[in-house]
User: Which sequence fits this backbone?
């Protein structure tokens, strides 16, 4: 017991010293290894952060959204459409919504203007008031009480006082939001009083979503009915596809890494071969030598992995994955920028470790095994 | 007691650069004695030493240590025999560069799992015995030839093996250092160790402490006394 512990302690001590004795090689390995973990980790963490944002956005959205369609394009719904849906069995609430996008040249960003639904008492806004998302507040340097001026594409002005700034767990949902009062919204976009952007439908029994959507479609043939499940499938598919594509590109980097690791880690130098021969000659067993090299490899890969993961996390958290975001998000860049919260998912970290540790360990073990099982005499020369 | 029967060692067997370094050696090495292998350069002394010390396997023939046949043992048992039985002092010492003299001496004992403190004390004791107390913390590449050799001897002794094997121990030493080496060998003999040395240095071969002189030529033993 005691002896086994001491033995391990000697091994670790010696391994640390041995790493320090070959600083250039081991530093090079740590840097390369960390870089690969950083690249792959950035993609994985970014992908999952985005997907979580999207899921959060969808879960806060309505179960069914009805959109009027004209020649395959989204059109406004009318009050008559909303009325037609009333009284449908299985429906708990019908809420016509008003929202629209506004390109703000002052903030160089795209905002979503929205009228909070009457059911959302927490975000009620009065005439001449606005509640803005964090991104908007940042872009326009707004604090509660400040004035926010918006200009519509046709030149209409909207002058509002910022009531509060949204703090949401889901930055993707709220970051670019500007909540305004209904009359202000209609005046700003020059909308008649009886049109709506779309209609949100909440059902009584979540399992009846499809049935309700089908029945509603019969009442409003000019409308398209999108369920939350449809939307999450689309979003998931889109992000997964992009992430997969990027990872596939990175697979090339992984293979290159494996080759380099093979060459560097254990294309054993003459000096290292000699050391292994000496250790064997003076009484170390093959297992001791292999354990030593595994400890060395473990230290190198452990440090590098930690550096890489922390780097990737910071990349996603503070730089919104600046290196990959364009590829992962597609062309419709998310504006305004919002901070993503990368979560440390044990499974993803394990995958990342397996992807990098496995080739590295193999690269270490194979040549060490060959050297350590040879006659020490042959190795030492 | 170590006995060899018809031991041969062929390098690069079956290839164009095949070398038969040892060709059919019968030899008995008695316990607690100082045995010297001598012979011209290339006669196979180092190779024979290596095979006896289980650092390499003979191509054919049998080697017994205290009656146990070791020539056919698998790798991991051979390791065990090697550690238990032999302490090596290599011709070029084979110390690990970048490590202190003390750490080099302690190295063979790591797998035994003896406590660190005890190992340090033991290593420093050995270094002190060889007049190297003030060199213990010095990295071995800064040592002189004689000092490096004594560190190598200390390293060979840390696991208290029964047989000390030294290859050309005086090749690079001046007269005074040779006397020092002989004194150490004398000590070891008195402590009951078996000492096996290769040398063509007359200062060794003619030394009074030598019990058996074995002469090799061209991979064979041409003379053994007694
Ligand atoms: N690993 C090896 N591969 C090929 N040939 C070898 C190897 N080791 C030794 N030899 C050859 O075997 C022969 C005997 O070598 P060895 O080193 O045993 O001689 P030696 O008597 O120790 O010589 P010296 O006095 O110069 O040390 C030499 O011809 C040498 O070239
Ligand atoms: Mg020799």
Assistant:
């Amino acid at each position: 017991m005691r002896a086994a512990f001491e033995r391990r302690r000697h091994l670790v001590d010696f391994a640390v010293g041995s790493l320090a004795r070959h600083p250039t090689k081991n530093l090079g390995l740590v840097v390369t290894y960390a870089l690969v973990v950083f690249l792959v980790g950035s993609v994985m963490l970014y992908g999952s952060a985005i997907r979580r944002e999207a899921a959060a956005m969808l879960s806060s959205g309505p179960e069914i959204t009805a959109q009027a369609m004209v020649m395959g394009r989204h059109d406004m719904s009318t009050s008559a459409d909303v009325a037609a849906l009333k009284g449908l069995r299985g429906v708990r609430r019908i809420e016509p919504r008003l929202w629209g996008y506004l390109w703000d040249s002052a903030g160089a960003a795209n905002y979503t203007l929205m009228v909070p639904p009457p059911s959302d008492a927490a975000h009620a806004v009065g005439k001449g008031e606005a509640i803005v998302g964090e991104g908007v507040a940042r872009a326009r340097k707004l604090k509660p009480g400040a004035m926010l001026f918006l200009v519509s594409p046709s030149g209409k002005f909207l002058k509002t006082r910022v009531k509060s700034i949204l703090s949401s767990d889901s930055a993707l949902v709220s970051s670019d939001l500007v909540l305004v009062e209904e009359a202000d919204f209609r005046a700003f976009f020059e909308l008649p009083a009886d049109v709506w952007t779309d209609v949100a439908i909440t059902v009584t029994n979540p399992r009846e979503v499809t049935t309700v959507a089908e029945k509603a479609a019969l009442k409003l043939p000019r409308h398209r009915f999108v369920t939350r499940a449809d939307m999450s499938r689309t979003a998931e598919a889109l992000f997964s596809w992009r992430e997969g594509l990027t990872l596939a590109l990175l697979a090339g980097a992984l293979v290159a890494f494996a080759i380099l690791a093979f060459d560097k880690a254990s294309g054993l130098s003459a000096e290292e071969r000699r050391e292994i021969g000496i250790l064997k000659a003076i009484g170390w067993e093959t297992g001791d030598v292999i354990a030593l090299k595994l400890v060395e490899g473990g230290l190198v890969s452990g440090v590098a992995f930690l550096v890489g993961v922390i780097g990737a996390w910071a990349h996603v958290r503070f730089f919104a994955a600046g290196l990959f975001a364009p590829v992962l998000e597609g062309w419709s860049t998310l504006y305004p920028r919002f901070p993503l919260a990368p979560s440390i998912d044990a499974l993803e970290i394990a995958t990342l470790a397996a992807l990098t540790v496995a080739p590295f360990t193999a690269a270490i073990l194979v040549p060490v095994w060959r050297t350590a099982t040879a006659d020490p005499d042959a190795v030492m020369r | 007691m170590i006995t060899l029967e018809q031991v041969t060692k062929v390098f690069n067997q079956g290839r164009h650069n095949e070398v038969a370094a040892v060709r059919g050696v019968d030899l008995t090495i008695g316990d607690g004695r100082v045995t010297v292998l001598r012979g011209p350069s290339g006669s196979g002394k180092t190779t024979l030493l290596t095979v006896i010390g289980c650092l390499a396997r003979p191509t054919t023939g049998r080697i017994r240590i205290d009656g146990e046949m070791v020539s056919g043992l698998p790798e991991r048992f051979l390791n065990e025999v090697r550690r238990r039985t032999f302490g090596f002092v290599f011709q070029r010492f084979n110390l690990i560069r970048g490590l202190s003299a003390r750490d080099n001496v302690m190295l063979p004992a790591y797998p035994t799992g003896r406590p660190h403190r005890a190992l340090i004390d033991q290593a420093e004791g050995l270094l002190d015995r060889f007049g190297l107390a003030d060199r213990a913390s010095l990295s071995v590449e800064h040592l002189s030839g004689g000092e490096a050799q004594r560190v190598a001897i200390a390293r060979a002794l840390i696991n208290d093996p029964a047989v000390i094997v030294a290859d050309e121990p005086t090749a690079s030493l001046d007269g005074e250092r040779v006397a020092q080496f002989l004194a150490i060998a004398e000590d070891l003999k008195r402590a009951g160790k078996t000492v096996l040395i290769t040398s063509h240095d007359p200062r060794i071969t003619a030394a009074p402490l030598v019990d058996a002189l074995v002469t090799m030529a061209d991979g064979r033993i041409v003379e053994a006394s007694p």
